[in-house]
Amino acid sequence: MKFMILLHSNAHFAQRWEALTPEQRTGFGADHLALTRELAGSGELVASEGLADPSLARWVSTAEGSPVVADGPFAETKEHLAGFYLVDVADAERAEEIAARVPDAVWGLVEVRPVLDMSGWDM
Amino acid sequence: MSGAGAGPAVVEALRAAAPAALGTLARRHRDFGACEDALQEALVAASQTWAADGLPTNPTGWLVTTATRRLVEGLRRDTARRRREELDARREPPPAEVAPGDDTVALLLLCCHPALRTPSQVALTLRAVGGLTTAEIARGLLLPEATVAQRISRAKAKLTEVGRTFADPDDDERRARLPAVLAVLSLVFTEGHTASAGDVLARTDLTEEAIRLTRRLADALADAPERGEALGLLALMLLTDARRAARTGPDGRLVPLAEQDRTRWDATRLAEGTALVTEVLREGVPGPYTVQAAIAAVHAEAGRAQDTDWPQVLALYDTLVGFWPDPMARLGRLVALGEVRGPEAALAALDALDEPGLRDHHRVPAVRGHLAEAAGRSDEAVAAYREAARRALSDPERAYLLDRASRLRTAGPVT
């Protein structure tokens, strides 16, 4: 079963991040790297990336019939996606176990969501 | 499959020969991981050579000889120069006698060893027993090839770590560990069946692979008492797969059993599955796969949905939930109960569910919607279908449930 482990961030977290010592920040990154390596080693990792700052986001819409690209005017957005792990694991418990190992979990902003598949129950 | 470009006869021959070759190699050399790697190389070589020169008279022997050469070459590369002379003596592979008997059971037990996590068991089984390449497995499981490659090499390392080498299982070992093998084969089937509505072209057909391996397992079990459940699982796969063409509409939508065009069911598969389940039921006490197959066979017998022998389906579900605690069995039983005793009775039974694991199952609202609709309680049905759609774990199911809700909303009388 595939699960998306979503790492959310917000202004409050960003402030706490800035207050960390360089050693603490390095440790944070090293823990991510170690977890990624471990998941790759166990054959559970599908993909994992950290995302650049939301100020760099471009918002694309074809709602008007042709593509419109804009900078995000969404200053009021409280939370944004900071990174993700896409894993393929035996069950939900294992996905939660991995999520608890994500360094961001100390901020309480890690979400585990099942990925939709193409199955169907025809009974 | 193994080796793109090789014809179906070559592919069939080399995959039929692969387990016996691996068994022979593993008996002789002990190091299962190295043997499995060497066999993969031999399979690739075979797919080219056999396609060009025709099938060898003894395909298994050919594979053993070629793989042994690879193994010895590997040894030579790994060994210090001063050992070369000595090792040169081993350069010519010993005559490839193939171990008598069928190693399928022993190989499956090894690949489904309890020290491995289920996803690893699946990948290793498909490669070591199925003879699929890592790329083919990755396509089948919709995973990056690197993930599957790592899963396989990690699984082999884990087997070495826990000291498991290839060995003939005794009766106790076989009895204790065969359920894990059946679970893995069932999972391979489900992975394939799951994809039938998806991107079929890009996928390796894991459904066919699961059927092939289960058939092979049942043959290899010969007179063992566990053969019944292996045949039961085979019957279940055949009967389920027979409905494949009918279970998705032209637009990829899920078509429930009651609405399927039964003329599109595969009559050959239905006949074989039904015959198998009849045979197993005659022989002794059935296991959970056999009972599920029996339920599928009752559905198969009905030319029209309204001809279904629901009392028999319900009786089989009663048996099934007695020894198989799976929520799907309990929910299937409620659907059958609704058909036999009426939707109100089934809704009351659904309300009375008190096991948290069952009451919170994501398919409970789907069953509630179905029963409420049958009871004429449209509002309740619409709410349940929408809740079910929110909680659905698959795209076709979500679309089906939303469709069901909107049909009731627009056409059905609101009570």
In terms of structural class, how would the helical and strand content of chain B be classed?
mainly alpha
The two chains with the largest interface, and their residue counts, are:
A-B, 21 and 45 residues
General shape of chain A: flat
Largest sheet of chain A: 4 strands, antiparallel
Keywords (chain B): Sigma factor, Transcription, Transcription regulation
Family (chain B): Belongs to the sigma-70 factor family. ECF subfamily.
Pfam families (chain B): DUF6596, Sigma70_r4_2
Protein name (chain B): DUF6596 domain-containing protein
Features of this protein?
heterodimer, A: 123 residues, alpha+beta, 4-stranded antiparallel beta sheet, two-stranded antiparallel sheet, 3 helices, 6 strands, 32% helix, B: 415 residues, mainly alpha, 4 domains
Layout of secondary structure:
The complex is a heterodimer of chains A (123) and B (415).
Chain A: E1 2-10, H1 11-19, H2 22-41, E2 45-50, E3 58-61, E4 68-71, E5 79-88, H3 92-101, E6 110-114
Antiparallel strand pairs in A: 1-5, 1-6, 2-5, 3-4
Chain B: H1 8-29, H2 32-53, H3 59-78, H4 84-88, H5 104-111, H6 118-128, H7 134-141, H8 145-161, H9 171-194, H10 206-221, H11 227-241, H12 267-283, H13 288-301, H14 310-323, H15 327-341, H16 343-351, H17 356-359, H18 364-374, H19 378-391, H20 395-411
Describe, in plain words, how this protein is organized in 3D.
The complex is a heterodimer of chains A (123) and B (415). Helix content of chain A is 32%, strand content 31%. With 123 residues, chain A is of the alpha+beta class. Chain A has a 4-stranded antiparallel beta sheet. In chain A, strands 3-4 form a two-stranded antiparallel sheet. The longest helix of chain A is centred in the first third of the chain and has 20 residues, at 22-41. The radius of gyration of chain A is 17 Å and the shape is flat. Chain A starts with a strand and ends in a 9-residue tail after the last strand. The mean pLDDT of chain A is 89. Chain B is mainly α and 415 residues long. Chain B has 4 domains: 1-101; 103-224, no CATH class; 241-305, no CATH class; 341-415. Chain B is 68% helix and 0% strand. Chain B has 20 helices and no strands. In chain B, α10 runs antiparallel to α11 (227-241). The radius of gyration of chain B is 25 Å and the shape is elongated. The chains are: A alpha+beta (123), B mainly alpha (415). The A-B interface holds A 40-47, 88-90, 94, 114, 116-123 and B 117-120, 123, 141, 143-144, 146-152, 154-155, 190, 193-198, 243, 247-248, 254-257, 260, 328, 332, 335, 363, 366, 392-398, 400.
